[in-house]
Amino acid sequence: xxxxxxxxxxxxxxREWLDRLAPVVAxxxxxLAGARPGKLALRTGCERDSAGNYHLAFFWRDYVIxxxxxxxxxxDTGAETPSFTQSLILTYLVTADxxxxxxxxxxxxxxPGGMFYASAFQGYAGNRLATELARLPGSxxxxxxxxxxxLGGEPLEELDAAA
Length: 163
Fold this sequence. Notes:
Layout: H1 12-19, H2 22-33, H3 37-44, E1 47-48, E2 54-58, E3 61-65, E4 72-74, H4 83-95, H5 115-135, H6 140-150
Antiparallel strand pairs: 1-2, 2-3, 3-4
């Protein structure tokens, strides 16, 4: 959930972080502009409609990526997505190589060059989560489990707790 001020606008720190994604989005759009549409559809698994737009499901939501300017919109509302979602989807379109989906979550460590992201993610997300959970009454694992269940998470038998 994005933190917002009393007017409903993203907090300045968040706005600054989101604005840093503008060059990523612009670079991805420039790269995609030179892609051959048929090959792009094959590499990404996107469906194409009669106008040539690309359709992609991402985190259980459908998106349409316009073929002329590569703007990402929600399929259900037509609303342009925030820069964070734009950057994720467009980066996927640029880097997809046609590899068949694994059917499971893959960690950063399993991706080529992913150790940088694994370390960064642990630093700004994993460590923060562990610190916050340690502050709660009871065991941190119990607090994590309760929070995950409230968000619709399901237990996995192999682990004490997982998200």
